[in-house]
Amino acid sequence: MAITIRQALKIGGLKQCTVAAGEGGLDRLLDYVTIMEVPDIVQWLKGKELMLTSLYPIKGDEEAMHQLVRELHEKGTSALAIKPQRFIDDIPQVILDEAEKYDFPVLRIPEHVSYLDILSPVMNVIFDEKVVIREDLELAYRLLDEIKNSKGGISQMAETLANLMKHEIRIDSFVPYLKIPSVDNGLQGMTSSQKEELAIVQRPVKMLRWNERRKVEQECLTAPIIIEGQVVGAITSIGVASEFLEMDLAILERANTILSLEFMRKKAAYELEQQYKSHFFKDLLFSKIQYEAAMHEKGIMYGFDVDKQYIFTTIEFTRREKGMTYVSEIMNQLERVCARIDDDIIIGAVQNGLYLLYPSAGKKTERIEADMNDILAEMQNGSAGEVYIGVSRAASDIGEIRDGYEQARQAVMLGRNLYQNKPIIYYEELGFYRLLSEIDNVTEVSKFYKESIGGLIEYDKTHDLELVHSLTTYFDHNESLSKTAEALFIHINTLKYRLQRINMITNLNVKNSEDKLNLHIGLKIHNFTKNDYRFR
After folding, report:
1. Which of 110, 295, 356, 492 has the most crowded Cβ, counting Cβ within 10 A?
2. CB-based contact 481:466 (threshold 8 Å)
3. Measured between alpha carbons, how far is 220 from 210 in angstroms, rounded to an integer?
């Protein structure tokens, strides 16, 4: 429904505007608000517009200033609202004189009133009747485009969509680089199956979504926001009016396109930041550090602060694909879960691997383990195959953080082979294997291995007694004969016979403390050497 300029002066930011000239034309009809951003905008006007401008496009052009009001009047434009102070000191007298000549309203916008303070409220009143949208969908499109051009933001987009569609609007982001301001409409986040449905159909669909506040499932119209074939977010109209479904779908599609561009801008900025962050990781771990203070200063922009103490964490996958897109997707997963856990976690990608600096100061072991399990669960839900996480000791300075990098890598390298059913490996849990990994003289290690249990290994190759497995199980059950026999599904006398054979072959007695220690170490070397390239 069209309104007059006089009526519009009682709406939103226009209430604070004053009539500078052309008061005789205040009863002109208005059915659209636009913004003057380019000098030749007049040729695109259709009539009955309120034009908002700072006059910047024609600043310094006296001829354009003189012709502006006449051209707008001839096009049927309803009024001109000018915001001085920024580019001009005041509204030029030539414009005021021309406005009086044609009874063409010229309004003065105060400095503190933004274009959106005027545009959105006035357009919401104009679109108050659903039938208007049916008759002129193009006006709705132009309003959404003005929101985009005015950089009104996602909140402004949601508010405008709600007024156009007469339903509450929820905009969701599924990626870490664009955070949506929370709105208490009670609607729960989308389930995995709903996101999957959007990813498959890649168009607006009707779906039921649970409203926690109302304790009911509500019928919604949800449109996916898509970048490069990936669903990165969604726009949801909470409620569906079947008689206007075609119009609502068209409006959602236009809003979808606009928001996709916003997501792409944020994505580009986010990926650039990740590159800088990865460079910081690379410098932190591999560059020769002459001045720690300079490294601290460089890391401040990423939240790096050694007073927080850090646990270095490495994440490895059985499915290792190359390329920025794949790494970026995995980084997105990490960002999502880390944002929930602790905003101070620093994430980086170096040499096709992903690493975390996890701030540990003041956190108990239970909290750290719970956070690592949350990270694991999120990564397992992705497409990275099996996931292994290596966790270092806590570090208090840059030197210890570098040590933590090696500890985390060592934990994954050893742990994923030694403890195959344990995807999270803490360096401190490696025990004696930590010492083995630090030994450079592998020749002596090999000799000790052969002298302790080497004979058992060779014996097992041609016999069925499984002496190595029996000895390992015996130690695992704290040398309890009954529990070991039960675990091996053999009679206790059979176990005693095997222990005697072990004594005879190795010349080491399981009842002698020194001999038992040598057998223990021999078994650990056996497990270690199966997976360490230095012993192949």
Report:
1. 356
2. no
3. 10
User: 12: Cβ–Cβ under 8 A, 6 or more apart, which residues?
Assistant: 117, 118, 120, 121, 122
- The span from the CA of 515 to the CA of 508, in Å, is 5
- Using one digit for the tens of pLDDT, what is the confidence trace for 375-404? 888 887 765 567 889 899 888 887 788 888
CA-to-CA distance for 283 and 295, rounded, in angstroms? Answer: 8
Angle between the N-to-C axes of helices 513-529 and 442-449, in degrees from 0 to 180, rounded to the nearest 10: 120
| CA dist., res. 382 & res. 507, Å (int) | 52
- Predicted confidence at residue 131, as pLDDT, reads 45
Angstrom distance (rounded) from CA 486 to CA 491: 8
Residue 480's pLDDT band (cuts 50, 70, 90):
very high
Q: Which residues contact 246 (CB under 8 A, 6 or more apart)?
A: none
| SS3 state at 68 | helix
Q: Is the dihedral of CA 506, 511, 515, 517 positive or negative?
A: positive
Tokens, residue 439:
């030994």
Cα 28 from Cα 69, distance rounded (Å)? 15
Q: What is the pLDDT of residues 185-221, one digit of tens each?
A: 778 888 888 888 888 888 888 888 888 888 888 888 8
Mean pLDDT of the chain: 81
How many CB atoms are located within 10 Å of the residue 157 CB? Answer: 20
What pTM was estimated for this model as a whole?
Answer: 0.52
pLDDT top residue among 368 and 201: 368
Cβ proximity of 395 and 310 under 8 Å: yes
Residues in the chain: 536
Q: What is the Cα–Cα distance from 354 to 315, expressed in whole angstroms?
A: 6
Does residue 102 have a pLDDT over 70?
Answer: yes
Is the pLDDT at 431 greater than 60? The verdict is yes
| Whether the predicted pLDDT of 79 surpasses 70 | yes
**Which two tokens mark 291?**
């001045």
pLDDT score for 440:
62
The amino acid sitting at 424 is: I
Instruction: State mean pLDDT over 500-509.
Output: 90
E-assigned strands of 323-479? 346-350, 353-359, 387-395, 424-426
For the record, the structure tokens of 125 come out as 């009143």
Supply the pLDDT for residue 323: 46
Measured CA to CA, the distance from residue 432 to residue 410 in angstroms comes to: 13
Mean per-residue pLDDT, 487-500: 91
Burial of 224 (0-12, 13-18, 19+ CB in 10 A): buried
Residue 155 and residue 144: Cα distance in Å, rounded? 12
Which stretches of 318-392 are DSSP H helices? 324-341, 365-380
Q: What's the burial of 468, exposed, middle or buried (CB within 10 Å: 0-12/13-18/19+)?
A: middle
- The contacts of residue 283 (CB under 8 Å, 6+ apart) are 289, 295, 298
Compute the CA torsion angle 432, 434, 438, 443 (nearest 10 deg): 40
